[in-house]
Design a protein that fits this description.
Blueprint: H1 2-22, E1 27-30, E2 36-41, E3 48-52, E4 55-61, E5 63-68, E6 71-76, E7 79-83, E8 87-95, E9 102-108, H2 111-120, E10 135-139, H3 142-153, H4 161-178, H5 182-189, H6 194-208, H7 215-221, H8 226-237, H9 241-260, H10 264-270, H11 276-287, H12 291-300
Antiparallel strand pairs: 1-2, 2-9, 3-8, 4-7, 4-9, 5-6, 5-8, 7-10
Helix pairs in contact: 1-3, 2-4, 3-4, 4-5, 6-8, 7-8, 9-10
Amino acid sequence: MEAAQQEASGVLGDLTRAVARIAQGDGDYLTAIPELSVHRRSATTEPMHCLYGFGVGITVSGQKRVALGEEVFDYSAGQSLLTTADLPVVTHITHASAAQPFMGLMLRLDPRAIVQAAAEMALPQPGKDFSYRAMSLGDLDATLLGAVTRLIELLHEPRLLPQLAPLLQQEILVRLLAGRHGPQLQRLVAVGSPSQQVVQSMAWLKMNFTQPVLADDLAASVHMSPSTFRQHFRAVAGMSPMQYLKQLRLQEARQLMLNQGIDAGTAGVRVGYESASQFSREYARLFGAPPLRDIRRMRETT
C-alpha cells in the first residue's frame, strides 16, 4: 500500500507540473479538448451556487468543498469527484495561496461511451446493499493519474491531438469503470434500475423545469409509488424532487438577471413561478438575499 501511495504521489507531481504549464495564472482555461477544462485560484473563494454536470473533477493541488444538499464533499490533491447527473451544488475553494494555489481540472464524460465500455468489460456487479449516489468521492491511483497527465500533455502536440485524445479519454473512462468509481457508473447504466429511472427523471426536469410539475406525476412516469420515488430520488440526488426543481429554477433565474439584465418579476415568471412573492422568498432563502440585492452584490464582486 505504501509503495502504491508513493507511486501515485510521484505521478501527481507530474500532473501538477502539466496543469501549471497551462494555467500560469488564476482563471478557468478551456482547452483544445472540448470536454476538458483547467482551473487555478491563488486564494480561497466564497461559496457559489452552480450546476455540476456529468463528469469527473480532479484536484491537483489545494482543496475544494462541494455541498450537495446536506452532504459535504472535501476533496484535495489526488482525489476526484464523480458526478453522474446534473446537480445543483454550492462550491468553493477552501485551501489556496499564491505560493500553493488551488489547481484542478474537469473532464466531461459521455454516458453512451460508458454504457458501451461497461458492456464490453467483465466487471464485478455491485452488491445488493450498494447505495448509488449521483456524486461520489475517491482517491486516484497512479495509473489513472498517469492517463490524465498524458491527456494534459497532449495539448502541446496539436498535430497528434485529434487521433490520440479520444484514445486517452477512452482509457480514462475504462480505468474509472475498473476503479473506485466503477460501482457508481455501473449502477447508473443498469437498464431499468431505480437509479437509472431517477437520473432520467432528473434529466427531464432539467429540460422542462419551467413547466408545472407534480412529484406524483414524476413517480407515475417511472412506475413507482410517490413514497418510493421520493426515497430513491433523495438517495441519488441528496434532496427531494421538488427541492431539485426549485434549485434549477432559482439558479436559472439568477443567471437571467445577472447576464441579461431581466428584472426579478420577469425572471420568476420565465422559470415557472406564478407568485412574485413566493419567488422572492425562495430566492432569498437559497442565495441569502432578495433578488435585487443579490444581483447588485454579485456585480460589485465581479
